[in-house]
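Hi there,

I know you've been waiting on this one. I reran it after we fixed the sequence typo, so this is the corrected version. Both the input and the resulting structure follow.
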Amino acid sequence: MIPLTAPVGITVNTSVTLVALVTLSAALVFGLALMPRPSRATITWSVGFGVAMLATYVWVAANQFDSAPLRALSSGLIVSFEPLLWLGIRYYAEKRPLWPAAVAFVVIGPALLTASSTVDAYPTVFRIVFSGAAVFAGLSAWELFRLRISARDVVLPLALISSAFVVVAVFGIVAGIAGVGSAPGDELRMLRDINGVGILLTSQCAAITIVLLARGEVLLRGGGRGGRVEGDGAALRARLARAQRLQDPSWSLLDIRLDDPA
């Protein structure tokens, strides 16, 4: 008699869902925004999604090996998505990028969390880094609400999620000061779990918003051939106006006229 072995199942838990959805969002941004529309904004956003995707894999490794430093590094990389998202929005809006602030947070935040992961000061450091990320999330929401685009509903999901990040951070700070939690570390564990769920929601909303912004408003309106020609003309006029405003000498306009043979 041939012995029958039990089928091997695949356990789909929170970590697997986190990796799958964030990786999918990164693939959408890479394939639908960065590749066809390379710019400073899409490059910055793609770097942010790359960091977020790396954070999810580090998260899985931390849970697999029960490593506190890896778990802290993952949390730092996850919140580093917020300053890169804000920086990309600044590039898209053609404003002064202020990139040193974003780069400093991306470098210092994960390093601080990793270095303090095994000491008693880690909860305080985590709240400080989390609050810093909330500041960038609030700035992202502010910039999104101020974007001058016709289809403003495109940015609403990401703007609302970024605003919710700020609200959660405020409640986390208040809970930490008030000592809410039945045991030490309960409130910090809750913030860490919210951090993981937050990157799920933020990555989905950000991917959709970024793709639509990068592809342009013509795609949003679903115009046909005539709409495409009109949209191309509007895009050309906008680029020439931007070049004139920035005094960019690399742009020029060729006016070609053909004689009517009749």
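Quick highlight: The chain has a mean pLDDT of 80.

Best,
R. S.
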